[in-house]
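Narrative of accomplishments. A recurring question from our advisory board has been how the design workflow behaves on a single, concrete structure rather than in aggregate. To address it, we present the structure tokens for one chain from the evaluation set, followed by the sequence designed for it. No filtering or post-editing was applied between the two.
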């Protein structure tokens, strides 16, 4: 809790002091890989980080968005374990996950074809649903933005390996393809999570595990309590197949009186087919729908 309090305080103070602090402390937003605008220093677990580490991540990320993508992103959240071809569940679940991956790919592709100049696709630059979003964006010829930190293989080297931080698509065992064109590799997972939300002009939540649901509840709570400007939020995928447990928990909270139905249900829209988000969000963001429909 103490660490979280420090991070939250730092974020608000930094919004006011970023430029002067950077000048006084000579913050440089350096990158060691060509498709990242910033690679934070790897220091292991979050408990090891200093205030300076948090501030450098925050300053460089805010500078990145302001200078390159001032309107923000359409951010796709979802499981790192729902792949193009799934075998981990029963037949029905695997088929539903296969379909979901393709639908997210199609959404990202069509969105990028039509609207990436205004609002590029952002993902967590990982495998699974994130891969689907990144592949859709890059294959449509637009930017594919990634916000990540040091996960998995990138943590194995003593000082981290930034070259392995952005996930690569592997169409075959011995072949890989870069699917992130630009982005950030954070030192702090907490700053990364906060800014994926804060930098979003809209958010699309596909099914996932504890990480995705953390992001869902963080977003709902921040908007519900007036700490985050409301933006379009979509929970996507067949409700019965993918989301029944989430809705059961929300209903239980309502029953117990710990949340109020109107506080939560007004904050997001459920869309069974992720591809339908394209038309809804085009209208919500007041973009050119006529040209989009023709393409």
């Amino acid at each position: 809790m103490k660490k979280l309090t420090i991070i939250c305080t730092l974020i608000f103070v930094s919004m006011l002091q970023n430029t002067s602090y950077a000048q006084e402390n000579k913050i440089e937003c350096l990158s060691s890989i060509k498709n990242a605008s910033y690679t934070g220093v790897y220091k292991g677990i979050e408990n090891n980080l200093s205030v300076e580490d948090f501030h450098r991540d925050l300053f460089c990320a805010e500078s990145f968005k302001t200078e390159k993508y001032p309107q923000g992103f359409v951010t796709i959240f979802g499981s790192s374990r729902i792949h193009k071809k799934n075998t981990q569940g029963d037949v029905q679940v695997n088929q539903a996950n296969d379909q979901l991956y393709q639908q997210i790919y199609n959404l990202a592709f069509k969105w990028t074809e039509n609207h990436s100049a205004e609002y590029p696709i952002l993902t967590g630059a990982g495998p699974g649903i994130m891969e689907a979003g990144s592949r859709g964006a890059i294959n449509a010829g637009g930017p594919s933005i990634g916000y990540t930190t040091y996960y998995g293989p990138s943590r194995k080297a003593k000082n981290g390996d930034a070259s392995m931080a952005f996930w690569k698509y592997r169409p075959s065992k011995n072949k890989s393809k870069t699917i992130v064109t630009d982005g950030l590799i954070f030192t702090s997972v907490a700053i990364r999570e906060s800014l994926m939300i804060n930098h979003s002009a809209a958010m699309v939540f596909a099914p996932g595990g504890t990480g995705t649901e953390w992001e869902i509840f963080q977003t709902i709570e921040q908007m519900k309590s007036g700490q985050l400007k409301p933006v379009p939020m979509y929970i996507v995928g067949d409700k019965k197949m993918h989301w029944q447990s989430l809705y059961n928990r929300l209903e239980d909270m309502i029953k117990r009186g710990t949340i109020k139905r109107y506080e939560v249900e007004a904050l997001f829209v459920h869309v069974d087919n992720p591809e339908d988000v394209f038309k809804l969000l085009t209208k919500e963001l007041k973009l050119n729908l006529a040209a989009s429909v023709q393409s």
